[in-house]
Amino acid sequence: MTNAVIPTEKTLLLVDDDKPFLTRLARAMETRGFEVLMAESVAEGVAHVKRSAPSFAVVDLRLADGNGLDVIEALHQARPEARAVVLTGYGNIATAVTAVKLGAIDYLAKPADADAVYGALVGDSETRAALPDNPMSADRVRWEHIQRVYELCNRNVSETARRLNMHRRTLQRILAKRAPK
């Protein structure tokens, strides 16, 4: 396998609705040589991409006005060689797979520090991750399966509940909670 080409232009779009985190990460990435653009919403992020698609992006998955994957998709369409990383506090396999299919090169759980973000942006995306020391619990596996079906149903709660043979309200409660350990 060959290493992915790292863009020489170091423009970086950061999209996150957590203003203090966004500001800290922007400062940290500027010290690493990036020219940083910040956005606090999907609409703002997509607008930046349409104006001038950056060579790098770090996008939060859940934003107040929608799904950060929309920014990833717009970036990949505008600049296919761009390297994008998805950040989220609601990590699950289904959204990680979707993010990669839409053009993301990595998927990091929050809170991620600047070194981890930088490593994901400029690191070799071809290398394999190490096996986890602690595998997922049965509750986590169940939660991951529900999330995968939810993503496959285009985040339609009623359709997901029907396919899982589960009451819609029960499913809504599960989706509102954080992932089990």
From TrEMBL:
Domain of life: Bacteria
Domain annotation Response regulatory: ranges: 11-125
Protein keywords: DNA-binding, Phosphoprotein, Transcription, Transcription regulation, Two-component regulatory system
Pfam families found in the cross-reference section: Response_reg
GO biological process, one term: regulation of DNA-templated transcription
Region forming the signal peptide: none
Record SMART domains: REC (SM00448)
Single GO cellular component term: cytosol
4-aspartylphosphate: residues carrying this PTM: D60
Entry-linked InterPro entries: ActR_PrrA_rreg (IPR047772), CheY-like_superfamily (IPR011006), Sig_transdc_resp-reg_receiver (IPR001789), WalR-like (IPR039420)
GO molecular-function terms, A-Z: phosphorelay response regulator activity; transcription cis-regulatory region binding
PANTHER family: REGULATOR OF RPOS, TWO-COMPONENT RESPONSE REGULATOR ORR33
Name recorded for this polypeptide: Two-component system response regulator
